[in-house]
Amino acid sequence: MLNHLYLARILSGILLALLTGSLVYCVLAMLGAWRYRRSGAKQGLFYPPVSVLRPLAGAADNTEENLRSLFSQQYPAFEILLSVHTPEDPAAEVARRVMADFPRIPSRLIVAGPSPLPNAKVWSLRALLPEASYEHLVMSDSDIRHDPHCLSTVIAELEQPNIALVTCPYRAVAGPRFWPRLEALGLNTDFLAGMLTQRFLNGMDFAIGCTLATRKADLASIGGLEMMQRYLAEDFIIGNRLHAKGRGVILSRHVIEHYIGNDPFLKNWKHRLRWARSTRRSRRAGYIGEIFTKPFAISLLLWAVTPKALGLVILALMFRAGVAWSTAFAILEDPLLERCWWLLPVEDVASFVTWCLGFFGKTILWRDRELVIAPDGSFEMEPPPGERLSSS
């Protein structure tokens, strides 16, 4: 009995310390959001021509509208380069239809060929890069929708002194299923809060790849896209390597929309676990530190050990609500949070469970291929002998 009480006190003390650290994190996240909101959008005086690179793969419900948003940019001079892996890809027909509707926008569709390595996105970007006419680049995923001022904003930000990379925050938009909506709530609160905290404390030493603005010379300075294809999170690596070279990486004031799909539970869970394992293998210390981003889950564990700690659960919920308001509501203007705010505790528990499971295993299933993630975040596999990049 005494041993049981002693262990319970030790566990309560550990959980209380973790909860205290987590509440401190919430304060830092809210301060980071406040500082971000105070930073105004940059107005450009010089708008150089831009090559926009967008890999395509398959035609989801929103592929065409996402692509049309790219062609509708209010920018003086830009070209759009699109890629598919095979001519039979359904996205090719969508691309040709949109290109025909915007004849004044210079655009081309490139067939990159099947990718011999798992990161097919970088394979496609490698096919597009030699075709780019301009030094300034914007790389955008196919599940991203932009408002008409995206290019003008990110290029104005890129033209600041010593800035090599601009990375855009996003508002996750999910389909009608329960689990994707739950994930979107987490992305629009937890994920953005983590970025803003990092920006507040240490600046940006990484990037998120939904939309990146950079230059050919800056990409070449870190080994080019060829070095990026062996990584699952190539966007993080690009930002991290540019930062390590003393070049500036900034979080844009322009918010984009990221359509995360409408997967059922099992597929959604595998997707979450894939990213958890990848993050744990590539950023071990950072992954362990994610425990402080989960105040509600920690408070529930503390309550289970110490029934008198119910007040701390309520306190954790209040701090969590403050972070959600300062990110998803005040910055992203997320309509999902307005409708489904009451699901945030459920998402917090789901996120905590995924985080715990991420400590086990080093294999992931990605695009129907079983892969092993190396400690540096790269894939432990090589391309088949004789494979070379080709495009047409």
Overview of this protein structure:
The strands form 3 sheets. This protein has a 7-stranded mixed beta sheet, sandwiched between helices. It has a 3-stranded mixed beta sheet with strand order 5-10-7. A two-stranded antiparallel ribbon has the order 11-12. The model is unreliable at 382-392 (pLDDT under 50). The chain has helices at 2-38, 63-71, 90-101, 120-128, 150-158, 178-202, 216-221, 234-244, 265-282, 284-289, 295-305, 310-329, 335-340, 344-357; strands at 50-55, 78-84, 107-111, 136-140, 144-145, 163-167, 170-174, 211-215, 248-251, 256-261, 363-366, 369-372. The N and C termini lie far apart (74 Å). It is globular and about 75 Å long. Helix 1 (2-38) runs antiparallel to helix 11. With 392 residues, the chain is α/β, with parallel strands linked by helices. It is built from 14 helices and 12 strands.
Question: What distance separates the N and C termini?
Answer: 74 Å
Biggest β-sheet strands, sense, barrel: 7 strands, mixed
State the total count of DSSP E strands: 12
Helix content: 40-55%
Mean pLDDT: 88
Rg of Cα set: 22 Å
Assembly context of the chains: single chain
3D shape: globular
In short:
This protein has 392 residues and is an alpha/beta fold.
